[in-house]
């Protein structure tokens, strides 16, 4: 039933999925965001981890994939055909590790299956959506993989406040706060995620084994 | 290829999808949130619209569906089997209009196809994820349906600030701010969404016609 074919092999070593966009970072935080992204790439390789990401080479997609590649790590990209020309322009991921899928849903499911944890870089609507979906999947017991946010210069403070609003109004269980870790330091975030015990989600039973990641 | 079968007919009249949760609202904003939800139900019916929602009858899911039903409007629910016991407890939606699907993805796709616009009530991770996905779909040119947020007592101010952070850092195009309308008044939000011209998203070409909603 799964919309995603199983032709692509699992990575041989543990990978983290990194959610980020293809826009050029601008404004007064641009240097800090780009530098934190490069440090995250090195931190992943330093902890023996590979990278799974959206497969583009513009914006932070390019920065994270080049930094992992330069440090000698494995880079796996998953991109929908429709976005190939938008997010992938020129060189970047090694072609034999780039997978073309049809839909965004297939991209997100494939990335999740290949990864042992998720990290969101500062991003826009697409990144926010991927992050919220990874968190929701913890809540729905679709997976129990840790989710982290690289909170450079307070970029994601509003999201953290939004979660507190949910807790204050009874709309998020306080124990579910730990579905997502916020940290400003790439190396510390990777270490925390490797050790993190994800809170138990809802006791749900999904119909098909492939509905669980 | 679509994971969603086409057995269920489209509603006979225009519907809005409302994203909300099944938790009991608590805290000092509870009365305001419940009252705004009831007013939204009346506003939908008053504007000749039906309701598509997640199909539960606990929490705000129960409040919105009962208020639309009480005002004489059509109520369509879409719920994954795994959540049937969690979100649907007792009576609520008319059974002939409740559809059971397998996965969250099928729920969200079905709800989107049945609706001409989307509104998020104050909610937790699941609601935030549905909202961000609806917005992302505008950006990805998967659909061009308006998205709104019922911002009761500033509940969603942090999300609005998060979007501004994205714009300030070059990660969201300023013109994409209007993919989502924030309003504290249910009636005015419905009216604004009915008139709203959604900004043009990215120029993408999806592989299969069914990838577009
Ligand atoms: Mg999603």
Question: What report would you give on this structure?
Answer:
Two copies of one chain form a homodimer. Helices cover 38% and strands 15% of the residues of chain A. With 213 residues, chain A is α/β, with parallel strands linked by helices. In chain A, helix 1 (30-46) runs parallel beside helix 2. The longest helix of chain A has 17 residues, at 30-46. The relative contact order of chain A is 0.17. At the A-B interface, helix 5 and helix 6 of A face helix 5 and helix 6 of B. The complex binds magnesium ion. Magnesium ion is lined by residues 129, 133 of chain A.
Give a short overview.
Helix content of chain A is 38%, strand content 15%. The first copy, chain A, contains 7 helices and 7 strands. Chain A has a 7-stranded parallel sheet with strand order 4-3-2-1-5-6-7, with helices on both faces.
Helix content of chain A: 25-40%
Q: Mean pLDDT of chain A, nearest integer? A: 89
Unreliable stretches of chain A (pLDDT < 50, length at least 5) are 1-7
Strand order of the largest sheet of chain A: 4-3-2-1-5-6-7
Distance between the termini of chain A: 14 Å
State the secondary-structure class of chain A: alpha/beta
Question: How many distinct beta strands of chain A?
Answer: 7
Ligand list: magnesium ion
Task: Please give a handful of descriptors for the protein shown.
homodimer; 213 residues; alpha/beta; 7-stranded parallel sheet; 7 helices; 38% helix; disordered N terminus; binds magnesium ion
């Amino acid at each position: 039933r799964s919309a995603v074919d199983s032709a692509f092999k699992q990575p041989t070593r543990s990978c983290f999925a990194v959610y980020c966009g293809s826009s050029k970072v601008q404004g007064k935080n641009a240097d800090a965001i780009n530098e934190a992204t490069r440090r995250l790439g090195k931190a992943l390789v330093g902890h023996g981890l590979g990278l799974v990401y959206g497969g583009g080479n513009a914006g932070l997609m390019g920065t994270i994939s080049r930094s992992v590649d330069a440090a000698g790590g494995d880079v796996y990209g998953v991109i929908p055909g429709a976005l190939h020309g938008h997010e992938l322009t020129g060189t970047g991921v090694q072609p034999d590790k780039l997978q073309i899928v049809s839909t965004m849903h297939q991209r997100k499911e494939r990335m999740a299956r290949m990864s042992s944890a998720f990290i969101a870089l500062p991003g826009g609507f697409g990144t926010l959506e991927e992050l919220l979906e990874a968190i929701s999947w913890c809540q729905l017991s679709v997976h129990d993989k840790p989710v982290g946010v690289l909170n450079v210069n307070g970029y994601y403070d509003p999201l953290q406040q939004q979660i507190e609003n949910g807790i204050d109004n009874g709309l998020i269980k306080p124990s579910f706060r730990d579905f997502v870790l916020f940290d400003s330091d790439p190396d510390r975030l990777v270490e925390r995620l490797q050790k993190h015990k994800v809170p138990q989600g809802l006791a749900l039973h999904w119909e098909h084994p492939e509905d669980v990641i």
